[in-house]
Design brief:
By secondary structure, the protein is of the alpha+beta class. 26% of the residues are buried. The protein has two helices and six strands, in the order αββαββββ. It has a single domain (10-131), classed as Roll (Thiol Ester Dehydrase, Chain A), CATH 3.10.129. The longest helix has 17 residues, at 47-63. β4 (92-102) and β5 form a beta hairpin. Helices cover 15% and strands 36% of the residues.
């Protein structure tokens, strides 16, 4: 049974996935693959689509740790993500994310995309940073005080 997403994410609404579970450091999203919108040239779920589902599932797993805070706690951004693809995703797929470890500012997660038979299609690990607000728009960006590398770049 689908539940509302924690935050409004226009891209996820466009894809059409649903949030199925969201609690205690775990989350699950699901999607019925639409051949006209979600597939690659082989007719299976596009790898970028599966990575997106993993990102959303793992991020919501991290976000679920703060449900007791006002507005569901701070937002978060993906710092890094590593994905391994094992089999094609077809028909209905679901991404399950869980928190392996969390600090006040970071969450370390893992996730899997599973097919309708429960077989792993992809596995990922990711690191998320909790943020109160995203620094976008006009900002004063200053150059580093000194160059990071000197000379010919071999150091």
């Amino acid at each position: 049974m689908a539940i509302p997403f924690a935050v409004h994410i226009p891209f996820i609404e466009q894809i059409g996935c649903t949030l199925e579970r969201f609690e205690n450091g775990e989350a699950e999203v699901a999607l019925d693959i639409d051949a006209a919108r979600h597939t690659n040239s082989f007719g299976v779920a596009h790898g970028g689509l599966m990575m997106t589902l993993l990102d959303v599932a793992m991020a919501h797993a991290a976000r679920s740790l703060n449900l007791n805070l006002p507005d569901g706690g701070p937002g978060l951004v993906t710092i890094e993500m590593k994905t391994t693809f094992m089999r094609p995703g077809v028909d209905r797929i679901r991404a399950v994310g869980s928190v392996m470890h969390a600090t006040a500012s970071m969450a370390f997660t893992e996730g899997k995309v599973l097919d309708a038979k429960g077989r792993v299609c992809a596995h990922a690990t990711a690191t998320f940073k909790f943020l109160r607000a995203l620094p976008v728009g006009e900002r004063d960006v200053r150059p580093a005080a000194k160059p990071l590398l000197s000379g010919n770049g071999s150091d």
